[in-house]
Amino acid sequence: MERNLRLNWQFLVDEARQRRKAQGLTQRRLAGIAGVSTPTVSRFEQAGKDIQMSSVLSILDVLGMTDKRTLDFQQEEPVYDSGRMVVTFQGVDAKKRIPCAISREALEDHFGGNRKDPVVVFKANADAIEQLGRRKYLRGEFEPDGSVLIRTSDLILS
To answer: Residue 39 carries which DSSP code?
Structure first.
């Protein structure tokens, strides 16, 4: 699947520079904490584009501009909940359990699940479905009970 990702480099650099100054850090001190050279911080703050991504991420991490959340999926068996018509599965962020589910409608509409066992369809497409759950989680798209639910409409917009 091809995606167009856009990054407003100048905005990112400006925000980083403002945060560095607000935290009372010199370029030299920021470089030391981030494990990069002072000229690297200077080039970054001048919106230079010839900087390694690992250096940029180190700088942004020190400034609190990175998101460390992850959503990993358990090896637990997915379960079909016939009352809700969803397949449930579990994600974990650090030690916090995140209940996830995909509707039977989504399985049928987008994963070839017509008249098939929903758990079998889920297992055959687990990587793609888990990625959709991860994306919703990182976007903060939760149900009122704190779970992540993948619907057909989510797949149309993805």
So the answer is: H
Task: List % helix, strand, coil for the chain (3-state, nearest 5).
Answer: 45, 15, 40
Q: Classify residue 8 as exposed, middle or buried by CB count within 10 Å of its CB (0-12, 13-18, 19+).
A: exposed
pLDDT level of residue 112 (50, 70, 90 thresholds): confident
Q: What does the pLDDT look like over 7-44, one tens digit per residue?
A: 789 999 999 999 999 999 999 999 999 999 999 999 99
Which backbone phi and psi does 111 adopt, to 5 degrees?
-130, 20
Bridge partners (DSSP) listed for residue 98:
91
Q: Are 49 and 42 in contact (CB under 8 A)?
A: no
- Please, are residues 5 and 52 in contact by the beta-carbon 8 Å criterion? no
Residue 134: closest CA among 68, 70, 65, 66: 70
Q: Which two tokens stand for residue 95?
A: 């030690």
**Domains of the chain as residue ranges with CATH:** 9-62 (1.10.260.40), 72-157 (3.30.160.140)
pTM here is 0.68
* Token representation of residue 20: 């560095």
Q: Give the pLDDT of residue 142.
A: 95
